[in-house]
Design brief:
434 Repressor (Amino-terminal Domain); Rossmann fold; 5-stranded parallel sheet; 8-stranded mixed sheet; 479 residues; 3 domains; globular; alpha/beta
Length: 479
């Protein structure tokens, strides 16, 4: 059965199916309309979600409309493939073949290390043109050839992406052709990491990947499995070619779609620090990862984004106007100064209390005393003040970090604050949400509640911005 027919008759929406198989609504739409082919893994998930009604074979015959898109969403795209030095480089030869089948205009860069695994001759035989290898190639650099490579592509794929290359990218290095191109481009970039599991799990690699994602770079994989080294297994295998092709189609589709273009979005993120005295403060465990990911996703959707963030240890997202604050009162002032806006998303974990009177000297322990009492007063309720204020944006989204009765508490909070939606999550310590990489949320609206599966915080951000874009009406904003 065709996916389009199953969605029409199965009593489930594309959004609900996307949530069930942990992908985006845009991906399901492209699959439904025959504009993309699923990877075998995704086809298996769809088959399971549909009870076997839609199988991998049902995607092979796309019907009469497929004549205009023989290669799916990548047909005739201009692709720059960067191959870096890892054993998984052999998979890139198959990737080249598959991209050529889709009539892609293909340029390839081989790093010096990549030439130890695949030769320029084999790459050139598949592409029909010699690969680029040297930043100082006299044949191409007379007209700054690396800048042309950076600009004259619809998308860039790095496969495999080694730990070394990602470290250089995250820190802005440009000491060879590959890194110079990556630093000079505004083209969408997809990384397919491949490395030893210990290298992938190392804190420095995790920091670099987080930085690259915050910079708007997409990542596919790595997968879990056996490594080239004898006896080694774990997460580090490069994604399979069908998965990479599917991810490339998603990236290309997102690059062309700017559903929030022309709209102003305010996002708050991180904790606030409420000073007790010159050296101590009241705070919470918020890392800011979710709020920053939302700001980055909104910018990729074409919005002009103002991010108001409390103290965090992560980098500012690219393409976003950032205002750094410390305390709740400063955050409120910054938000009010950023209004008017079309959309406001309050993801910050604002401290509920502050000192009634800030001590101007460090509070000292008193001899013999075993207790200290702090006189606290409530902080301003930023979400409520904006939701009920005269400059209220047409769409206001709040966050509710709960440790019990998550949905019921979020429903009550939505009514009390006056916002349109609440994104609720369970932040009990054992779930590891505060400071972690993943999140499982409930989207609480006036008439509906959506339960989303556990995803990375970047995926939650993408899904939330897709929902915002589908619900937001520019006509309403201008009314």
């Amino acid at each position: 059965m065709k996916l389009s027919l199953w969605l029409k008759t199965g009593g489930i929406s594309a959004r609900e199916l996307a949530a069930e198989i942990n992908t985006t609504e845009a991906t399901i739409s492209r699959l439904k309309n025959g504009h993309a082919l699923p990877s075998m893994e995704m086809a298996g998930k769809i088959a399971e979600a549909t009870g076997g009604a839609v199988t991998a074979n049902d995607f092979l015959d796309l019907g009469p409309d497929s004549a205009s898109i023989p290669g799916g969403g990548l047909d005739s795209a201009r692709v720059l493939l960067i191959i870096s030095g890892g054993i998984a480089a052999y998979k890139s030869l198959d990737l080249i073949r598959r991209l050529k089948e889709r009539n892609c205009t293909l340029h390839v860069i081989l790093t010096r290390a990549a030439e130890e695994f695949v030769t320029p001759l084999s790459v050139g035989a598949l592409t029909g043109a010699a690969p680029h290898t040297d930043l100082f190639d006299a044949r191409t650099e007379f007209d700054v050839g690396h800048i042309r490579l950076a600009r004259e592509s619809d998308l860039i794929i790095v496969a495999p992406a080694t730990a070394d290359l990602m470290a250089k990218m995250a820190n802005g290095h440009a000491d060879d052709l590959a890194t110079a191109v990556l630093l000079a481009t505004s083209t969408p970039v997809l990384l397919a990491p491949a490395m030893n599991p210990h290298m992938w799990s190392h804190p420095s690699t995790r920091r670099n990947v987080a930085q690259l994602k915050a910079d708007g770079i997409s990542v596919i994989g790595p997968n879990e499995g056996e490594m080239a080294e004898a006896g080694e297994s774990g997460v580090g295998r490069m994604a399979e070619v069908p998965e990479i092709l599917n991810a490339l189609e998603n990236v290309l589709g997102k690059a062309g779609a700017k559903p929030l273009e022309g709209q102003h979005v305010i996002v708050t993120s991180g904790p606030t620090h409420e000073p007790i005295d010159p050296v101590r403060y009241i705070a919470n465990r918020s890392s800011g990862k979710q709020g920053h990911a939302i700001a980055a996703a909104a910018a990729r959707a074409g919005a002009r984004v103002t991010l108001v963030t409390g103290p965090v240890g992560i980098a500012d997202p690219a393409g976003v106007d950032v205002i750094h604050v410390e305390a709740a009162a400063e955050m409120l002032k910054a938000v009010e100064g950023a209004l008017p806006a079309d959309i406001a998303i309050f993801a910050a974990a604002v401290a509920d209390w502050r000192m009634a009177q800030l001590a101007d000297q460090k509070l000292k322990k008193k001899p013999g005393a075993t207790e200290m009492t702090l006189d606290l007063v409530q902080n301003p309720d930023i979400l409520k003040l904006v939701s009920r204020g005269h400059k209220r944006p047409p769409l206001v989204v709040g966050f509710a970090a709960e440790t019990q009765n998550v949905v019921e508490n979020a429903k009550a909070k939505r009514r009390a604050k006056g916002c349109d939606w609440i994104v609720a999550n369970d932040v009990a310590h054992e779930r590891g949400v505060m400071g972690g990489e993943k999140n499982a949320v409930h989207l609480v609206m006036e008439q509906d509640i959506e339960d989303w599966p556990e995803m990375t915080k970047e995926q939650v951000a993408e899904m939330l911005i897709e929902r915002v874009a589908s619900a937001f009406s520019p006509a309403k904003a201008s009314a």
